[in-house]
Design goal:
By secondary structure, this protein is α+β, with helices and mostly antiparallel strands. About 45% of the residues lie in helices and about 15% in strands. Helix 7 packs parallel to helix 11. The longest helix is centred in the first third of the chain and has 23 residues. InterPro entries: DNA_brk_join_enz, Integrase-like_cat_sf, Integrase_catalytic, Integrase_recombinase_N, Integrase_SAM-like_N, Tyrosine_recombinase_XerCD.
Amino acid sequence: MAKKNRSVPQYGTVTRKGTLYYRTRILDADGKQVSLYASTCEELYEKQLAAKKQVEEIIFRRKHPTVAEYCEKWLLMQSAKVSSATMKGYTSDMRNYIIKPLGDMYMEEVTADDIRLALVPLTKKSEGLYNTVNMLIKCIFYSAERSELISYNPCVGISAKGGRPTKKKDALTDQQVEVLLDTVKGLPPYLFIMICLYSGLRREEALGLQWDCVFLDAPTPYISVRRAWRSEHNRPVVSTVLKTPAAKRDIPIPKCLVDCLREAKENSISNYVIADSKGEPLAYSQFQRVWQYVVVRSTKPRNYYKYVNGESIKYTVTPTLGMTQKNQPKIKYTIDFDVTPHQLRHTYITNLLYAGVDPKTVQYLAGHENSKTTMDIYARVKYNKPEELFDVVNRALAKDR
């Protein structure tokens, strides 16, 4: 078959380093002029066609990105706002649970059913992971909607929790706090628990706290949050990179915590408030062992596995409150409620709200970047008691008679 004739344009010429070239200019994807050179008009024409095609593809991709492309862009935008540890978690979760199932699809062609199907495998994972991935998916598509890359947001039809029931952990009651502190008094987790309960520090803030940020002799004693701890390959890394800019704050502390910190400082050999026997910040595995002092004293059911005739048999044991551990009589089961490190901080925030501290002040003390986080807790705290709702409604509807 005869080759189709094409009309090759005539181009201008330019001499570069003694060699004559044909030259033309085109607009790149950013609207800037770029020059193309070749030894012949035919060669330059081929270069021009290829460059125009590449520019058109780039422009199309910008207007019609795939899920994978937009996820990478969104991560880059977030890198300036969140800590490296948070970014590492976001990147891993996004690549494993969003890009893998949805990455090759264009953003505009993803449906609510596609998202629900992507979330199905996560129903067998932890509640925390499920909620994180669900949140990331929503962030991606709401961001694309605001940038007018999609005309329809498939997340609109998906509930805030993706349809998966979740159990919110409540703040500890005063009685539970008393039991917890009595249980761990004199044990390794006591100082950590006191700091989180009475200053509301996040785990990474408490583990990164150094004595130069603890002001016990000031007219109003306070803790200055300036560093955060993270774990890399089970090695502690403490830096001035906080979770968000709002995490940088000064927190007044009550007398009970002042006394506890003063005693700890007198016996400390480290720059860190919470440290290992060598004065170094705790590794992740070390913190887990410290928290085990709480776990082993709770009545939470334990699963054990024994090999019987070569087969692994699962046994579930539920300790009885008040009893001691069979092999270690010094360990007594005294905690009959769930408690996590984050619950300590949640208890601090809740107690501030119960005491009537205004939400804006609580937002600052908690280091919340978004006021919605504080207000969500405020709403749960303020309106979860019928007697308070009764008074509010009566005052609102009361009429002079």
